[in-house]
Amino acid sequence: MTTSHKARKQRRAKMDAPFHRRRRMVSAHLDSPLIREYNVRSLPVRKGDTVKIIRGSRDIKGTENKVASVDLGEYKIIIENVTVAKADGTQTERLIDPSDVIITKLDVSDGWRKKKLEDLKGGA
User: Fold this and answer.
1) Which of 9, 22, 30, 106 could hold 34 in an S-S bridge, CB 3.0 to 4.6 Å?
2) Is residue 1 assigned to a domain?
3) If you average pLDDT over residues 76-82, what whole number do you get?
4) With the C-alpha atoms ordered 103, 108, 109, 110, is the resulting torsion angle positive or negative?
5) Is residue 12 part of a domain?
6) Can you tell me whether residue 116 is helix, strand or coil?
């Protein structure tokens, strides 16, 4: 993002980042079998990937489900069936930081991503 060590400039660079750079910043670690299979530690989270929440409150920790959407503006992900109750009693989706999850299953329905993963497999 930036070569500056100043926190103010780093925060500014993150908030002013274009979306093609934000996508890379919404990355999560892979599960151990996936790390061995693809020879890479982390990948950007995508809609359709299956993730497991490893950090957070007790009610959501350990939950494993698909990613419903990725919010690049907030640098957060939304996971299916992970909600929080509002003051009026209705449920709304809960924004989760990608560093709090690990990817357990990758969505390879996209041909471009499938090719990239195959290149990672054979590359190392």
Assistant:
1) 30
2) no
3) 96
4) positive
5) yes
6) helix
Q: Enter the tokens of residue 50.
A: 């299956």
Query: Residue 77 sits in which domain range?
Result: 7-123
Nearest-angstrom CA–CA distance, 14 and 8: 10
Q: Compute the distance between CA of residue 124 and CA of residue 122 in angstroms, rounded to an integer.
A: 6
Strands 27-30 and 101-105: parallel
12-62 pLDDT, tens digit per residue, is 999 999 999 999 999 999 999 999 999 999 999 999 999 999 999 888 999
* Total tally of structural domains belonging to the chain: 1
Tokens of 27: 């990355």
Q: What is the pLDDT at residue 124?
A: 55
CA distance 80 to 88: 21
